[in-house]
Write a structure and sequence with these properties.
Elements lengths: L1 H17 L2 H10 L2 H7 L10 E5 L4 H13 L2 H26 L4 E4 L4 H7 L3 H13 L4 E2 L4 E3 L11 H8 L3 E3 L4 H4 L3 E8 L4 H12 L4 E8 L1
Parallel strand pairs: 1-7, 2-3, 2-6, 6-7
Antiparallel strand pairs: 4-5
Helix pairs in contact: 5-7, 8-10
Amino acid sequence: MYYYSMWKKIIEFIQNFLVPESIKTQKLLALPAGTMRDLLPKSPVYSKDIFVLFDYQNKIVRFIAKSIKYKNNSNLRKRIAGYLYEEIVDISSEVVLFEGTTPILMPMPMSKKEKRNRGFNQCEELAREIKKFGGDSIEVSYNTLKKVRETERQTKLSREERLENIKNSMSVSKNKPSEIKNRVVIVLDDIYTTGASLLEARRALFASGAKRVIGIFVAH
């Protein structure tokens, strides 16, 4: 088993080396949008008010997510934003029917330091692409939910450590509570792992009067 795993990693490394990232992206984007979505494995997450598109365990899904998160790949971002838009339309229809109000979309925030180091917030970039698809039918707020405290990177922390790490790290801008009072908010993030970031976003939004908070993610 050990040798099989080792050889599998070696083969994957060679394949990645022989097939440049740009070629992988071109092959993906050559597929019709509907075909590509059908080919990517759906997320196994089924939970109230949490919507996740794809399964992060899949190698292609990981490649797409990392290309958007770390390399700001505009072409893959646009394709994924189209899928997110389709999901948001369905969610919005349900919200209007049962809540009697249209939802407002908010990207998961980064601290100023995080954004400065990376150069962009991938969730904000996705939200902008979604807005292009939806136009006036999609209400987006980029600066209502803010990250007000620096946190450690969540990657290697346990769920308990993640919850403690991110505790009280978000808030709603002082002049914004009236915009979300009794509103349904859809929080957009790229990767759903333990849900710690969404829990913190919910705490901050509910404290400012939000009626319901829904999370939507690219992958888990």
